[in-house]
Specification:
alpha/beta, elongated, about 525 residues, 6-stranded antiparallel β-barrel, 3 domains, 20 strands
Length: about 525
């Protein structure tokens, strides 16, 4: 079927082309034209901006009670003159099947070229995957249409993902949609979420939702509460241990003695290897270093070692990495209520173990004979509040403990099948190098100029027109760009299947409801304040 003409090209320049149309098009709508060459091609384009072709004289607009079109007609003007628009378009290109991407023809359409509105036939090449096939993630629809936007899970997972949005724009909701897609029978991904606020625990409903079932497949959801998170002392590096026990008063001599004790313990392994050690062994080794001249330093170290008895650190209990990353399983690591420093340390230890397991499984060091470390498939890790784990610059006077391993995975994880999704509402506080390694981007409303600048500076596929669009995005809408899709697109994120805990609280409704129950402020209505000398 021949598409209905939308407009005709007036002129073009180095920034794009302008066409005349009676349709008032939205920015980021897709249009196309047909080339006249021997091998005719459809060239996909995007609407950049629009303005009236002819403006009403100011005098026609002074009386709000009179329709300016009626004034124009009364004065002898043709009312149709004011119904046309000059619309700026930007060429995306034609889709090359062999390359699997859009190729810009390096020229704009000539004057007189007919422009058409793009329908499903022209838009299908925007997606790298087809809805419902293995490796597809249907996250929503192109804004203003019912055309589904489908990400390539292979590209998203292997080359990392960022989800960036201001508070309240739908960031966590969108992550929930992505997780739902990853746990569908067509993907069955092993997913681990670092959850600093405990907001993703609602995803446990996925396990009992029949929409995720297929034959024998039924996804599993494992919620790991803070009191169940255990770190084995022997898995910590010397610098980690010092950062835990040092309150800022530990002398250089103490640090040197303590480092020597740690090295002594690790060298006790057979054939010069390394071994695990317990807190008791660490204390005993420190004690054995007394020589009569360092008693005060030894006592200072032993006193500080009590900080390892806080419930998180254990002698033998370990993070069960393989159990956390089963096929078709979501593990939500709820680290809410744990200090930022310990959250970073937990992330560091777990990410280091994941990377080690994947790297050494790939090179054959770990086999089925080492079931607690053998991880024979790619995995996906979501870091909510990613700026906590990989902050920009120094963090509190030093580098965040989790930042080095995150940067290692972002740069090398593709080779070993470890994908990371970085989620943040403050990209200006997120390490720019880390953000630049996320090759698929879902960017929602961003108002803060510093955050916009960081996005434009860090993400290669984000152009100036994308950055300028960010403040105007509606809630639940996102610009999706990068390797997971063939061209940047504004997407209306689909509805989640399950519950959402990320929505803002309706404070007035809660106050009124609580007041009516009679629980808030009873008796005389005067509540004694111990800080004030008032009695009832």
């Amino acid at each position: 079927m021949t598409p209905t003409p939308l407009g005709i090209v007036l002129r073009h320049d180095k920034t794009g082309f302008t066409f005349i149309t009676r349709e008032h098009l939205k920015t980021w709508e897709f249009v196309h034209y047909q080339t006249d060459s021997q091998h005719s091609q459809q060239i996909l384009c995007r609407v950049a901006e629009t303005e009236p072709l002819t403006e009403y004289p100011v005098e026609f607009l002074l009386d709000t009670g009179i329709n300016p079109a009626d004034v124009a007609e009364f004065c002898g003007f043709d009312p149709d003159e004011f119904k046309y628009f000059m619309t700026k378009g930007v060429v995306i290109g034609y889709f090359d099947e062999s390359l699997g991407e859009f190729i810009n023809p390096r020229m704009n359409p000539a004057a007189g070229t007919v422009i058409h509105r793009s329908a499903a036939e022209q838009l299908r090449e925007i997606n790298k995957a087809q809805s419902g096939e293995i490796g597809s993630a249907t996250i929503g629809e192109i804004a203003g249409t019912d055309f589904e936007v489908v990400l390539s899970v292979k590209d998203v997972v292997s080359q990392h993902l960022s989800v960036i949005a201001a508070t309240g724009a739908g960031k966590s909701y969108t992550v929930g949609v992505i997780v739902e897609e990853l746990l569908m029978p067509r993907n069955r991904a092993p997913v681990l979420i670092f959850d600093p606020h405990g907001e993703y625990t609602v995803l446990d409903a996925i396990a009992n939702d029949s929409r995720f079932w297929d034959g024998d497949y039924k996804p599993k959801v494992r919620i790991v509460k803070p009191d169940k998170i255990k770190i084995r002392v022997g898995d910590l590096e010397t610098s980690d241990l010092i950062s835990i026990i040092d309150d800022g008063t530990m002398s250089d001599k103490m640090k040197t003695l303590f480092g020597s004790a740690c090295r002594t313990l690790r060298r006790d392994g057979s054939r010069g290897g390394t071994r695990q050690f317990t807190r008791s062994e660490l204390r005993n080794t420190v004690e054995e270093m007394r020589d009569g001249n360092n008693d005060s330093s030894i006592e200072g170290i032993l006193w500080r070692l009590r900080k390892l008895d806080n419930g998180i650190f254990h002698d033998h209990e370990d993070v069960p990495i393989v159990d956390y990353l089963r096929i078709g399983q979501l593990t939500v690591m709820d680290v809410s209520g744990i200090s930022t420093g310990f959250q970073q340390m937990i992330a560091q230890v777990i990410l280091r173990k994941i990377f080690d397991a994947r790297q050494k499984t790939e090179n054959g060091t770990y086999t089925r004979d080492t079931p607690d470390k053998y991880l024979p498939y790619p995995v996906f890790v979501i870091l909510e509040e990613a700026h906590r784990f990989a902050p920009q610059g120094a963090d509190g006077g030093g580098v965040a403990k989790s930042k080095p391993i995150i940067k290692t995975i972002l740069s090398e994880g593709r080779k070993f099948g470890v994908g990371i999704c970085m989620v943040s509402q403050r990209p200006s506080k997120l390490d720019s190098d880390s953000l630049s390694q996320c090759m698929t981007q879902i960017t929602m409303r961003i108002i803060n100029p510093a955050d916009q600048e960081q996005i434009g500076r860090s993400i290669e596929s984000v152009s100036r027109d994308i950055v300028s669009e960010l403040p105007a995005l509606a809630k639940g809408h996102a610009i999706v760009s990068g390797v997971g899709i063939n061209t940047p697109t504004i997407v209306r994120i689909r509805q989640r299947y399950g519950r959402d805990r990320g929505a803002s609280k309706d404070a007035p409704s809660i106050w009124v409801r609580e007041s009516r129950t009679g629980r808030a402020g009873q008796g005389s209505g005067i509540i004694p304040d111990p800080e004030l000398d008032i009695g009832v």
